[in-house]
Design goal:
Layout: H1 4-26, H2 34-50, E1 74-76, E2 85-87, H3 90-104, E3 112-119, E4 122-129, E5 132-138, E6 144-146, H4 149-152, E7 170-178, H5 181-193, H6 202-210, H7 215-219, E8 224-234, H8 242-251, E9 261-264, H9 266-279, E10 287-294, H10 297-303, E11 313-317, E12 322-334, E13 340-351, E14 354-360, H11 364-370, E15 373-374, E16 377-381, E17 389-393, E18 403-404, E19 418-419, E20 428-429, H12 436-447, H13 459-467, H14 482-486, H15 493-506, H16 511-517, H17 525-535, H18 538-543, H19 546-549, H20 557-568, H21 570-581, E21 603-607, H22 615-624, E22 628-630, E23 639-642, H23 648-656, E24 659-661, H24 663-672
Parallel strand pairs: 2-11, 21-22, 21-23, 23-24
Antiparallel strand pairs: 1-6, 3-9, 3-10, 4-5, 4-7, 7-8, 10-11, 12-13, 12-16, 13-14, 15-18, 16-17, 19-20
Length: about 675
């Protein structure tokens, strides 16, 4: 018999996992990241294997999900919807492949695998009888799910009637319902505008949308469905390979993932996984890994199942993008526009491939929404290059000495008053140039690579210059002397000469760069370029009325108001004049009538990752040539610019026969028309 200690740990793990299952699947209120759940499940599996005497049929290790919600009718699946074994490394994949070959015989290898991104959504079953949708159900606990027919009928990527012919009399299609990233952001933005609760992540949003009793609410949510296989099949025959089955489903009207592929051997699986991991964050939807399946259905039959998973498939997980840690303190930073941003200081935690010790809390409204206290255990999310953020609080771990976060009523740097403009979520310091934090941030922005590109003027040097009182605004940079620089800490003669040379070199710039460098609120690179190309010169821009500014592409009432506030400010215009007096100059831009622009009346779409320029820059350049830049591909699209990770837009463009070019071809096109980013 095992000792009491392992038995107690097993019992504790089972209890904890069951509680999390209930929160995740029944209440739609997950309290821990997937990584924490996976660790506990792996530990339980390890202990149950080590102590088989402790095995129980009702253990969470023998389950797939949680209990279905009671508000919906229940559906018993004709064939169980099982979960998948997880792999976390290339070594795990080698072990998986070895188990397959041991069961099939060495002469079966190298095996052919179907590779599919593991969408982070809700698994569903769709039953078609004689080509018509009869029933939709969630996976539930794998045996019994929830009847969500009235909701799945509202999802446009789910066919109500199968297309084509030769489909089985009874066909059960299985897939994942998910919410694309863009739709998720729009949904949360609308919720914020209405003062409603936002969703933590797209998966949570998809689950909440599917479990609406009123299908009209579901119909308003941007849900998609991507199929990954079949269950029950009667009165017909399907192809003998998994990838061929997916292709047949596509013919019958279902969405399949364009990233799917077939590879030979487990090493090729690793290559596919690594390549997709690089592009993960540029995909238009969340994925948490890759599913690998033996492609030959006859071999799948031979391999069979274990109690809770097929032997012929495995899900290799990406490193967790959510983790738990403790909030140690909150500091308040002041940006170049005076915006006060709360920054959480965290107990360091490894998440999304890096160690995270800071996370943004955005603004005072977000602090209230989260209900977060100093000392709380929090869930931190990091996706790609996005600044880590706190997405929720684990309330049942709140310590007794946790302290509420108090937003400052004075600027933490200069002690000036803070104000919040109507309709804004951000509090701002009213100190302006009196505030050292704003001075420093404005100068750092002015000197940055995409602005004036002043080589050698790093953040620490800017801090020194402002603290020493040598520079009060950006114009003061061009008045610096070698003697003043040499008096600074760690500034040698060569460094001083190099900086003065870089300042002199930066005086020759372009109008778009200069506009962007001024740091006018809401005026980024793309808007600066549009303004420069529309007005052609600085006097025309500075004299433009709000009505004239609104004629510029991507300039709305808010941006126009910020521009006019800047131009109407005597202090701001004195700085501009001082810069010009110091020798900062740029050539005017030739303005062409709209009808003479080379891409007029054309519709372009930009997708995927670009290296030489940002998507906003590409958009601005195309608009400057007369093109309309759309967010989605349609029959009206003239051309698609596709970088790595183009995904569904590239697939649709290919389907519609639309011209597709890469970034290099775009740069060549721009150069042809005198644009050299």
């Amino acid at each position: 018999m095992p000792s009491p200690e392992p038995l107690q740990e097993i019992a504790s793990l089972r209890e904890q996992l069951e509680a999390w299952n209930h929160q995740y699947y029944v209440l739609d209120a997950p309290t821990v990241p997937d990584a924490e759940y996976d660790r506990c499940m792996q530990r339980l599996l390890q202990l149950e294997q080590q102590y088989p005497q402790a095995w129980r049929a009702d253990s969470p290790s023998q389950r797939v999900g949680g209990q279905p919600l009671q508000q919906f009718g229940q559906v018993t699946h004709e064939m169980p919807m099982l979960s998948l074994e997880n792999a976390f490394s290339a070594e795990d994949m080698q072990h998986f492949n070895r188990r397959l070959l041991d069961r099939l015989g060495e002469d079966a290898g190298p095996l052919e695998f179907a590779c599919e991104p593991k969408l982070d959504g809700i698994a569903v079953s769709l039953l078609y009888r004689n080509g018509e949708l009869e029933r939709g159900a969630t996976r539930g606990d794998g045996t019994t799910g929830e009847d969500i027919t009235h909701n799945v009928r509202t999802i446009r990527s789910i066919p109500l009637r199968l297309r084509g012919e030769h489909f089985p009399a009874v066909l059960e299609v299985r897939g994942e319902i998910y919410m694309p990233k863009a739709g998720f952001e729009q949904l949360n933005n609308r919720a914020r505008e209405r003062g409603e609760k936002t969703f933590v992540n797209p998966r949570n949003a998809a689950a909440g949308s599917l479990r609406q009793l009123d299908a009209r609410i579901t119909a308003e949510r941007p849900l998609q469905m991507c199929c990954y296989g079949v269950g029950l099949v009667e009165g017909g025959q399907l192809p003998g390979r998994h990838a061929e089955v997916l292709a047949r489903l596509h013919d019958w009207g279902f969405r399949i993932n364009p990233e799917s592929a077939v590879v030979q051997g487990v090493e090729a699986c690793d290559t596919y996984f690594d390549a997709l991991a690089v592009r993960r964050n540029s995909l238009p939807y969340d994925i948490d890994g890759v599913v690998f399946k033996v492609n030959d259905l006859a071999l799948q039959q031979r391999l069979g199942f274990v109690s809770r998973a097929p032997r012929w498939a495995i899900a290799r997980k990406f490193p967790a993008q959510e983790e738990m840690t403790r909030l140690l303190d909150v500091e308040f930073q002041v940006g170049r526009t005076g915006a006060i941003t709360p920054v959480a200081r965290l107990e360091p935690v490894f998440v999304g491939g890096v160690t995270v010790s800071n996370a943004t809390l955005h603004n005072s409204d977000e602090i209230v929404r989260l209900g977060v206290h100093i000392g709380d255990t929090v869930i931190v999310r990091r996706a790609g290059d996005v600044i880590p953020q706190i997405v929720s609080v684990v309330l049942d771990r709140r310590p007794s000495d946790a302290l509420p976060i108090e937003f400052p009523d004075k600027c933490p740097v200069c002690r000036s008053a803070v104000e919040r403009e109507p309709g804004e979520a951000v509090w701002r310091c009213m100190g302006g140039l009196v505030c050292a934090a704003q001075q420093k941030a404005a100068i750092k922005h002015f000197a940055s690579r995409r602005a004036m590109d002043i080589d050698g003027l790093g953040d620490k040097l800017v801090e020194q210059l402002v603290d020493a009182g040598l520079v009060e605004n950006v114009a003061g940079l061009y008045a610096l002397s070698k003697e003043q620089l040499l008096a600074l800490e760690r500034m040698g003669e060569k460094s001083a000469d190099n900086l003065l040379s870089a300042l002199q070199h930066s005086k020759a710039t372009t109008l778009p760069r200069f506009i962007f460098a001024l740091g006018i609120r809401e005026v980024g690179e793309a808007t600066a370029l549009n303004l420069a190309r529309h007005f052609g010169n600085w006097p025309a821009l500075a004299a433009a009325s709000e009505a004239q500014l609104l004629q510029v592409a991507d300039v709305g009432p808010v941006v126009a108001d910020h521009l006019r506030q800047f131009f109407d400010s005597e202090a701001s215009m004195r700085v501009v004049q001082s810069l010009q007096d110091a020798g900062v100059h740029w050539p005017d831009i030739e303005r062409l009538p709209q009808q003479e622009l080379p891409l007029v009346d054309q519709v372009w779409v930009v997708t995927g990752k670009l290296d030489a320029l940002s998507r906003d820059e590409a958009k601005a350049h195309l608009q400057a040539l007369g093109a309309k830049v759309a967010g989605s591909v349609s029959a009206n699209t003239t051309c698609l610019v596709a970088g790595p990770g183009a995904g569904s837009k590239l697939a649709k463009a290919s389907e519609l026969g639309i011209e597709v070019i890469d970034e290099q071809a775009l740069l060549q096109l721009l150069a042809t028309h005198g644009i050299n980013p």
